[in-house]
UniProtKB/TrEMBL annotation:
This is Polysaccharide lyase family 14 protein. Coiled coil: none annotated. InterPro entries: Polysacc_lyase_14 (IPR048958). PANTHER family: DISAGGREGATASE RELATED REPEAT PROTEIN, PTHR40124. GO terms for molecular function: lyase activity.
Length: 218
């Protein structure tokens, strides 16, 4: 499945410590794999994007991990939260549109870490992994858009000092019942346009914004 959208941040956007952006998810636990709810491999997974200080970007995932995986130089594991994949491999720019395309293909068989994750930033491949384990059981499928955007983090040190905005446009989702035979830029059997344009207000008094969209090729 692939998700593509454009996101813009106000001019002079204060990145603070970081925040979440939309991504993909799957599994039977529709509200899990976020907020410190660690995955078992049998319940859910999520792969959202994050910005960090100065706009540094990453894929932020709730997936099963191993000690060897967590020791890799471009992986940051947190036992209480998600996994940062390739932090700083691209940089969000405020005051202009940033285009992202996220591609996820689940590991198959479920016992093998051969899951595929690719991220294109402004149509340039910036993250590519073919060795991930998104699931440990066949009950976990990829079936949803996880639209969340907020500063955080789990405490007030992440909060924005001023009311600010993020903007979204041209959000599209591609997928199919069978594995993709195309790149993450042009992937596969079904597609849906989610929204043309949307503005979200982020303020010190608002904790987070999120919506969960489940999708199925069946």
């Amino acid at each position: 499945m692939s998700l593509s959208y454009e996101v813009a941040f106000d001019e002079n956007f204060d990145w603070v410590l970081g925040g979440k952006l939309p991504g993909l998810r799957g599994g039977t636990n529709a509200t899990g794999c976020s907020g410190g709810d660690e995955p078992t491999g049998l319940d859910c997974f999520s792969t959202r994007l994050m910005w960090r200080p100065d706009g540094a970007g990453e894929v932020y995932a709730y997936i099963p991990t191993t000690s060897a995986f967590c020791q890799e130089s471009n992986i940051t594991c947190n036992p209480d939260f998600g996994v940062s994949i390739s932090r700083g491999s691209f940089t969000f720019v405020s005051g202009e549109w940033n285009r992202v395309t996220l591609f996820v293909q689940l590991n198959d068989p479920v016992t093998t870490a051969n899951g595929d994750l690719q991220l294109y930033f402004n149509d340039q491949l910036v993250i590519s992994r073919q060795d991930l384990q998104f699931r440990k059981g066949s009950s976990v499928d990829i079936d949803g858009l996880y639209f969340s955007t907020f500063f955080g983090g789990s405490d007030n040190s992440w909060a924005t000092p001023n009311t600010t905005h993020t903007y979204y446009r041209n959000m599209q989702l591609w997928g199919g019942a069978n594995p993709s035979n195309a790149t993450a830029v042009n992937s596969t059997n079904y597609s849906i346009s989610i929204l043309a344009f949307h503005e979200i207000v982020l303020s010190p008094s608002i904790t987070y914004h999120y919506a969960l969209f489940c999708w199925s090729a069946k």
